[in-house]
Amino acid sequence: MKNMSPIISFINYLQNNTTQTQLRYIGYLGAFGGVGLVTTFYSLVFPAVGPATIALSFLLVVLITSIISGLTFGIIASIFSVLSYQYFFLFSGKFPVADSKGWIDFLVFLVTAIITSQFSAAVRTRAYEAEKGRAEVSKLYKLSKEIIATTDSITAVSSIAKQVKEIFKFKYCAIFLQEDNNSWQQLDAVSETSSARAFTPLQQIVDEVGNTSEVMLDTYTLKNKKSKKRKTKNQENPLYVPIKIGDSVKGVMVVISTEVERGTIEAITGLVALALERAHFLQEVSRAEA
Q1: How far is CA 220 from CA 119, 159, 217, in A?
Q2: Structural domain 151-289, CATH architecture
Q3: CA-CA to 222 of 20 to 30 Å: which in 34, 81, 178, 286?
Q4: If 0-12 CB within 10 Å is exposed, 13-18 middle and 19+ buried, where does residue 39 land?
Q5: Integer CA distances (angstroms), 28 to 7, 34, 115, 270, in order
Q6: Per-residue model confidence as pLDDT tens digits over 46-98
Q7: How far is CA 51 from the centre of its chain?
Q8: How many CB atoms lie under 10 A from the CB of residue 75?
Q9: Does the structure show a pLDDT above 60 at 170?
Q10: What is the pLDDT of residues 16-45, one digit of tens each?
Q11: Dist CA 10 CA 20 (whole Å)
């Protein structure tokens, strides 16, 4: 998006170029380092400012931390900011345990900081979702162009799983076509990781998706012993999606992905159905010409 604001562009850059671990480190740095920097600056370097300026500086730290690293780190920065603001600036080295006014100041600043962190975290989430949606639409357009550019019917059918996997970065993609005798023909299967290569689609689920025309999610166990012993939090589950032409199911696509939304995967199957129809049309044309 050419008209995207610099803040949203920066958020998207961080989302696409940093890991979750790096974002956590940035969050801790923003929460503790940012508050510490503001406290040091107004305590030692430039003490001749009013409490409103100091409070706004702390809120700025909360805002930046929430946008970059999310709500959790924004709340941490909020609590740390309130404590620092109370101890160093409002009550000069003490906490007003018995002072009702001090408690009111504490609660007002804390609520304001938390609300600020929630709003900024929401902005961060929406910016990421907007960029993700834009990227997925762009990939759908690229897939449609490749389908149209393929003029050979055999290539159009045999390469469709590879095209889908490469464009959308799936860890596994396989396409099954239903034949006239109600059996299934696996056109192609491509995988990226060792865990995906160890996966074999379950025939009974393929049959059920073909009969019910409904998307199904299946958990699977890797064939190697190490993976059986160790289950990870983000273990991918294969998704079985019907390929429909009109109201009838012509095939099933099996994918493994943790990044792409289910709605996008269903849109992909629509393009796969278009590719299969186009391949059938090219075959009919070649027969007619022969």
Answers
A1: 39, 26, 10
A2: 2-Layer Sandwich (3.30)
A3: 178
A4: buried
A5: 20, 9, 19, 44
A6: 888 888 898 889 988 888 888 788 888 888 888 888 888 888 887 776 666 66
A7: 40
A8: 20
A9: yes
A10: 677 778 888 888 988 899 999 999 999 888
A11: 16
